[in-house]
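Before our next group meeting I need something from you. Please put the record directly below this note.
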Amino acid sequence: MKPEPRCQICVTCGVQFAPASAAPEACPVCEDERQYVRWSGQEWTTLDELRRDHHNEIREDLGLTGIGTKPSFAIGQRALLVRSPGGNVLWDCITLIDDATVAAVKSLGGVRAIAISHPHYYSSMVEWSRAFEAPVYLHAADRRWVMRPDERIEFWDGDSKGLWDGMALIRAGGHFEGGTVMHWPSGAEGRGALLCGDVVQVAQDRRWVSFMYSYPNYVPLSASEVDRIVAALEPFEFDRIYGAWWDRDVESDARAALLRSAQRYKRHLEVG
């Protein structure tokens, strides 16, 4: 008798794969040079297994509702719920979803759409999409990194995609070809905010940002790629940047932080 198909989840990156009777031989996301396979080798889990000893924490993060898993799982990012009159956007995604999380998010107005910065945070996006009957917006340049295809995934092309209430998705590139940043014009008390994942990485002192092709393997971006990111974001008004992890945010003066950080980054590339 064949095993029942199950959706396997990579323990290192947290990405969920399509249903199968056996675990995949490898995780393409982790075998790519922008990620890694853990020292103990490839490991898999499932949502049912994850729910046994993990839960989600839902709390405020600089004016937004953050959703993160405890104890930390995979890359450890937290999702952000952007509440807006025309409907809420879930920015980036996490692997764990359970009944308590769904109920809590529905009590905050639910989710009209899910938008994700890059493949490392695709996680169990299909599960989230089905729970809230919401489309998932991904840039078409990163289509090949989708490990669980689904009809709710909507690929967009070009440099930007308008949403509602003035919000927009911006193709910044960098970390991944389709690396996406979300502009929230009502953020930062109306001064505007960017939700960046780690396409633009908020530094530890939270006054600076940085840019990398591969964070775990310490591979930098070129100066031209950094210029491309800055140019893509320049037309948008913003005073705040939200990063990928709890409280990793540039609270104010974020435009200046982006510009001076890009100059510093390029200056150090030239040293030698």
